[in-house]
């Protein structure tokens, strides 16, 4: 039931942002190697992971696959309004009191951009690094 609701939220989000729902016309088929960097801006640490997943799998599915390896873990909550919210990675959670959170970024080549959608809707691409950056807001 919860996954159906999440799927509907993602579909509704894609209707609002047509470019996000466009197909990748690169001709790429089959599995995609997804690279994930978990960075901590406060301690300047980076831990890298990778997984081969079906093309089009949302990041939530990728993170679940990584969690099956036992070397990675994450927690999340589900908002009725906004979908899946990333709470912690490898035991480190954001905090309102400390003004910390997990920033979601995409790196392609030398370009790094902030994501407009969360882990429930974002579909990683080939030759991209998905970055979960623990950082602080002012």
From TrEMBL:
Highest taxon listed in the record's lineage: Eukaryota
InterPro entries: Cobalamin_Transport
Keywords: Signal
A biological process from GO: cobalamin transport
Keyword RNA-binding attached: no
An example molecular function term from Gene Ontology annotations: cobalamin binding
Extent of the signal sequence: 1-21
GO cellular component: extracellular space
PANTHER family (alphabetical): TRANSCOBALAMIN II, TRANSCOBALAMIN-1/GASTRIC INTRINSIC FACTOR
Protein name: DUF4430 domain-containing protein
Organism: Phoxinus phoxinus
């Amino acid at each position: 039931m919860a996954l159906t609701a999440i799927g509907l939220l993602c579909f509704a989000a894609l209707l609002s942002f047509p470019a996000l729902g466009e197909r990748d016309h690169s001709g790429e088929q089959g599995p995609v190697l997804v690279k994930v960097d978990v960075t901590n801006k406060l301690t300047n640490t980076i831990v890298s992971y990778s997984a081969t997943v079906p093309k089009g799998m949302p990041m939530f599915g990728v993170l679940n696959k990584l969690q099956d390896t036992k070397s990675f873990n994450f927690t999340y909550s589900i908002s009725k309004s906004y979908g899946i919210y990333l709470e912690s990675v490898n035991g480190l959670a954001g905090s309102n009191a400390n003004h910390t959170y997990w920033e979601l970024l995409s790196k392609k080549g030398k370009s790094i951009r902030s994501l407009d959608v969360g882990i429930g809707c974002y579909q990683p691409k080939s030759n991209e690094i998905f970055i979960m950056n623990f950082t602080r807001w002012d």
